[in-house]
Write a structure and sequence with these properties.
With 387 residues, the protein is an alpha/beta fold. It has 12 helices and 13 strands. The protein has helices spanning 17-33, 51-64, 85-99, 114-128, 184-194, 197-208, 237-255, 282-295, 302-314, 337-349, 355-358, 361-371; strands spanning 7-8, 11-12, 42-46, 67-72, 104-108, 131-136, 142-144, 150-152, 162-168, 173-179, 212-222, 262-267, 328-329. It has a 7-stranded parallel beta sheet, with helices on both faces. A two-stranded antiparallel sheet has the order 1-2. Strand 1 and strand 2 form a beta hairpin. Helix 2 crosses helix 9 (302-314) and helix 5 crosses helix 7. The longest helix has 19 residues, at 237-255. The radius of gyration is 20 Å and the shape is globular. Bound molecules: nicotinamide-adenine-dinucleotide.
Amino acid sequence: MIVEPKVKGFICTTAHPVGCKANVISQIDYVKKNEKIAGPKRVLVIGASTGYGLASRITAAFGMGASTIGVYFDKEASGKRTATPGFYNTRTFDEMAQNEGLYSKSINGDAFSLEIKEQVIQLIKEDLGQVDLVVYSLASPRRTTADGTNYVSALKTIGSDFTQKNWNLRDNTISEATLTSATEEEIANTVKVMGGEDWSDWMNALADADVLADNAITVAYSYIGPKLTYPIYHEGTIGRAKQHLADTAVSISHQYADKGIKAFVSVNKALVTQASSAIPVVPLYLSVLYKVMKEKDIHEGCIEQMYRLFADKVFGTDGIQIEADGMLHVDDWEMREDVQNEVMEIWEKIDTENLLELADTEGYWLDFYQMFGFKMDGVDYSADVEV
Ligand code: NAD
């Protein structure tokens, strides 16, 4: 069939198999062009099919020559419905890795469940023995715990409501969006879904099954961002969950100190992914940030970020680059004073009339479409494809 994008607000309900393949290949090419990284050789990536997790897996395999196991949660195609992008991405990744003689297996299922943890442990035992790097890159709006309880996260402020400029993606206008404040229950549920509890469960399950190598490293991802978005991110419900994630890193390192296991949080740059485009205010911030960072020639996508993280900040010649707050930072260029000053200057004056001139809306949409395999160079979108 001929696959076209069907965009509804911040989501696209179709994905192009050939375009997704081209996207993964271009990320692989980026890593292969760069120097090899002296990193671990047996890597587990939880949340491996899109965004930062996929880029981490590509860096591990094609940059470090690692065997990888990836866990993801995506839908296969059915009838006239295409699969979700992560499904096509993972299929391509497995194929490309195997072509290069790299071990690669992927498990599609709910990473929060005991069943998937057990499947992964079994696979490690059979094929790899142990793992020495665990990347935890889940972004999910909900989690079902082992006792069957469903938790749904909320994107809300804590304390008071917050109103800020917002880019209406449907009609390219700038208006205001108000985020309301969360109840105690909503805060707790967001921490339950996006905090560190499941990361810790994974590490305990791997360690108990003796599939975690001595001196293994585990890393999970976070975001802080500028003061502008503090009420909705850093100081909101999601920020509370990220604080829990950071605390979990400390407790995992402490718990497994005798095995030399170290857990880190890496604070990454704001980028268009399925998770971030769903947050109000953030798309406008992203498109202004893209404009400023591209003009300064320091813009990066997920793959550039993850390559730099592993090559320079984790497995570089100078050792692990922990900052004063105890975390790794590849948001360093985003947070540079000159970058943030310019973003704020633009933010003050941006409105519906000057939006297209002051923000990189085109760059935003290009990233958005490419996430679903559209607008990739060299892909014939008029051709019939097998979904
Ligand atoms: P994403 O939506 O692109 O990727 C999420 C991944 O998790 C996908 O592979 C998906 O299949 C998987 N997943 C979701 N629910 C799952 C489940 N129940 N079981 C198994 N797999 C599941 O998101 P992303 O933006 O790459 O986010 C990854 C991490 O990076 C998150 O912790 C996020 O907060 C963080 N981060 C994102 C940004 C950003 O701007 N996008 C910035 C800094 C940090």
